[in-house]
Amino acid sequence: MSDCLLDVRGLEVGFATEEGTVKAVDGVTFQLQRGEVLAVVGESGSGKSVTALTLLGLSRSPNAYFSGSAWYGDVDLVSASDEQLRRIRGAEIAMIFQDPLTSLNPVMKIGAQIAEQIQAHEEVTKTAARERSIELLERVGIPRARERIDSYPFEFSGGMRQRVMIALALSCDPSILIADEPTTALDVTIQAQILDRIRDLREQTNAAVILVTHDLGVVAEIADRVAVMYAGRIVEQGTLDEIFYDPQHPYTWGLLGSITRVDRDRPGRLPAIAGLPPSLADRPDGCHFRPRCPHEFDACTRIPDLEQRGGGNEGHLDRCWLEPGAKTELREVDGQIGLTGKA
Amino acid sequence: MALAFGLLFIVLVAACLAAPIWANQVAKTGPIKNHLTDTVVVDGKKKDVVTPDGIAIGPTFQGQYFFGADGNGRDTAVRLLYGGRTSLFIGVGAALITAFLSVVVGLLAGYFRGWVDAVLARILDVIWAYPVILLGVALGTALSLGGLDVGPIKIDADSKLIPVLIIAVVYVPYMARPLRGQVLGMREKEYVEAARAQGAGPLRIMASEILPNLASTIVVFLPLIVANAILLEAALSFVGAGVRPPEPSWGTMISDGVKSIITAPHLTIVPGVMLVLTVLALNVFGDGVRDALDPRAKIRLER
Amino acid sequence: MLRFALRRLVSMIFVLFAISVLTFVIFTVIPGGDPAVRLAGRNADNAQIASIRKDFGFDKPAYVQYGRLMEKVFTGELESYSTGRLNVFDEIVKGIPRTLSLAIGAAIMWMLFAVALGLFTAMRAGRASDRVLTVLALVGVSMPVFWVGALMNYYLGFRAGLFPNGGYVPLTEDPIQWLYHLILPWTALSLLFIGVYSRILRSNILDTINDDYVRTARAKGLSERRVLVKHVLRNSMIPIVTLWGLDFGAVLGGGAILTETVFDLQGVGQFAAESIESLDQPPVIAITIFGAFFIVLLNAIVDIVYAALDPRIRLT
Q: How much is the mean pLDDT over chain B?
């Protein structure tokens, strides 16, 4: 399909540590279409960040091993050479990180940092690169860009810094933008502004966005499709509506149930999913969510494949052995979607 | 590994402390006794301790003149051990005084703040700004003729206390400033407030709450200061602003040795190697202590 | 930036004043005995001592004495009494080019080697070569520079004849000889610093290489070389540059005295050493003040340069 930009198949990433091999990503498969926003949701330790970093080869290290593939055009990002990766980074696939203060070089002017990226990929003069940098800063809504371009990162507020990072990421017109928790380090009010930026820019450039986050509110704002990750695997995948209104996996129910809503009555206690995520070095057999799932039964000792079950739309996949009918019933807790405590 | 070097340091110190035993039992001479006209038997042959041309005997590796003799016929090994006592006395003594003064100044400045801190911190800054060797040289030269005479304190020019005090004062800012910083920080902590609320006076708080927490910083600093103090004493003595002749110290021995290096290189090599071993042992040990107690510390002493 | 520089220079002036007072106190107040006798040196007679007493105002109050001393030092009228009334200031001026040749050359040498060594050991962290070099660095710090210098001069200069046996040739006279005569002194002086600096740089590099902005630099598609040089190395070097300035000052204010003596370079440091040995105080006073002044000035410049390199400092 010519609209499919990224084709990730069975991606596995493991790290050798003192406690044994830690499998951060355990078989992740998904596709990314041109112009769509795919949200990858999960708790800390779910493997979502490592997945994102791996797409740009930024998780490579002497004690890391990889298997599976991630096809971008005719290049497999997992096994690509350093030179291939270098050409793709920034120019075709760009990334913005969680903490803009530490992610920008503190002693380099921001204009220079943007121009540096442009000049690494295109044959332009310094003046041309500088003009483009000013333009980019204006596009992301930095006031007085022509003066601020010679400022240092610490002279900006958090929200402004993140905009600088967005400007940086877009400087070479990438076809994919990966955003790793872009709003986590920011105030809620600034969050909305940043998400607006991302949305605008997606509209202007038709770039695809992979948004890694743990915040369902952010997901609801901006995502087209959602992939829910747990303990290194995607446990459910579908469109925004499908995930929010017709979730098929108990973990998704738990996530949705734990959102506090202002349009409903106040709950007695904040709902949370009982238990803790498994240690990545030592995982349970079968379905990884089994220890915390109140609906587990004997089939759950076998790993469910990520596939479409029940009547729903093609493309709405999940990893739960429960019958679709049972799912519709079990997910209703006190009149809304949620997860009961484990018996 | 650091422990091994700590042990090495102790062995070296013990050897130097045992100087009189070596001098009397083995070499059968003293550190300042000349033997210009004596002879000694080496490998069955009779040799002049100092030839008529003034060339001293080299290392014999036997009881007398183990490391040879200097231009005045003095036994180098004996001088080495006695010199070690002097150098170590000055180095350790100075470091202890530095530690004591630094703790006092750091506590007073950090705890009482206000004008006490303003005055003390300024004094520290000025001493700190004065380059180490220049300060040592200035003090050494100034005090070399008439000794020290400040108010009630009178010290003779030839006393070993002079280099001890000079070196101690020079290094105070290096230790006092970080300690002061620590005290300033600790002062605001809850346990200090709790103690104050219980009615404890400043002296009590400083002694029982703050001082114990400074212990690890002090312990990390000490080996490094001793090492640098020994090196500074050697440097000062080398230029003549430290220990006064004929008292041996490693610094004066190297100074003498360099003057006759062409005819008797062993006179330069021997005390130097001893000095390097001692300082190295302290440095490695100090590094190890620092890694064990506070691996993120950025303690550095200027030369 | 300008405000920071001005503030720094103003505080420097206070420190300079304090140093001059401290020097005065060191030489006049705290020692025992008669200051005039001390100043006159070894070979003075009573008439000389009396005239010195009048000249320096030792019979007058302290602030007058301070004033007279400073006047003499800074108007270049200070004389060395024991060595036949040499003008101290003239002698110092004669020695400055030699001392500077030693200090600047050594500073450049140790910086180059330290950067190379620091990078090398950082890239090979944990491996055998790294550990060996760390030990060598510790040994370097433990050796007195005058001892190393003397031995180098003896073995490489006198015995092996590879280098001249001390002495100095002015740059204007013969550049090649100038260089040739300075290689051993530069090396002796550098050994200590190379060890310390390469270890600090190594540690900085290892810290920086894991920083987030380095990851961003790679994500931008920059070449690995550019990431290493423009981001990792540049940021790691900033603290080192200030250290370098400070140590350069320390060399001028101290290390030079020892090295010059060993290699007979006849610079300001050797002048000081010779004066000390003959208990001739006026030159020591002058050199101490000028030396300290120069170093305080250098420290202020170093702080300003640091602020230029790392803009975050300007806020302090």
A: 80
For B241, which of C27, C158, C276 is closest by C-beta distance?
Answer: C276
Full set of structural domains in chain A with CATH: 4-223 (3.40.50.300), 228-337 (no CATH)
Partner C, chain B 84-113, Cβ-Cβ below 8 Å: none
Coil, strand or helix at A23: strand
Give the ipTM.
0.82
* For range A288-302, the mean pLDDT: 82
- What are the structure tokens assigned to A324, written together? 């679709």
Give contacts of B 211-230 with C, CB under 8 A: 227
Does residue C71 belong to any structural domain of this protein? no
Q: Which residue has the higher pLDDT, A68 or C14?
A: A68
Q: How far apart are CA C304 and CA C6, in angstroms?
A: 9
pTM: 0.76
Whether C89 maps to a domain, the answer reads no
Residue-range definition of the domain harbouring residue C210 = 95-267
Set of chain A residues whose Cβ sits within 8 Å of the Cβ of C223: 86, 120
Q: Is residue C257 one of the residues assigned to a domain?
A: yes
Q: Are A323 and A312 in contact (CB under 8 A)?
A: no
B246 preceded by cis ω (within 30°)?
Answer: yes
Each residue of B55-101: pLDDT tens digit? Answer: 777 777 777 777 777 777 777 888 888 888 888 889 999 999 999 99
Under 8 Å between Cβ of A98 and A165 = no
- Type of residue found at C253: G
| pLDDT at residue number A93 | 93
Domain count along chain C: 1
Q: Is C284 on the interface with B (CB under 8 A)?
A: yes
Q: How far is CA A290 from CA A41, A233, A303, B135, in A?
A: 19, 13, 10, 73
Mean pLDDT over B230-247 rounds to: 84
Concatenate the DSSP letters of all residues of chain B into one string: -HHHHHHHHHHHHHHHHTHHHIIIIII-S-TT---TT-EEEETTEEEESB-TTSPBP----SSTTTT-B-TT--BHHHHHHHHHHHHHHHHHHHHHHHHHHHHHHHHHHHHH-HHHHHHHHHHHHHHHHS-HHHHHHHHHHHHHHH-EEETTEEE-TT-THHHHHHHHHHHHHHHHHHHHHHHHHHHTSHHHHHHHHTT--HHHHIIIIIHHHHHHHHHHHHHHHHHHHHHHHHHHHHHTSSSPTTS--HHHHHHHHHHTTTT-THHHHHHHHHHHHHHHHHHHHHHHHHHHH-TT-------
What DSSP state is assigned to residue A59?
Answer: T
CB contact under 8 A, C312 and A58: no
**B207-219 pLDDT, tens digit each:** 877 888 888 888 8
Edge-to-edge strand order for the sheet containing A176-180? A93-96, A176-180, A208-213, A37-41, A225-230, A233-239, A317-318
**CATH no. for residue C210?**
1.10.3720.10
C3-13 residue pLDDT tens: 878 887 887 88
Q: Which of A325, A306, A328 lies closest to A316, judged by CA?
A: A306
Residues of C in contact with A90 (CB under 8 A): 219-222
User: Which residues does chain A have within 8 Å of residue C234's beta carbon, measured at their own beta carbons?
Assistant: 107
Contacts of A165 in chain C (CB under 8 A): 216
Chain C: list its partners (3+ Cβ pairs within 8 Å).
A, B
Structural tokens at position C162: 């590879």
CB contact under 8 A, C216 and A104: yes
Q: Which residues of B touch C144 (CB under 8 A)?
A: 231, 234-235, 238, 254, 272, 275-276
pLDDT given for residue B151 in this prediction: 65
Q: Is residue C90 part of a domain?
A: no
Location of structure tokens 């290699």: C263
The residue of chain B nearest to residue C256, with distances taken between CA atoms, is B133
d(CA B253, CA B271): 7
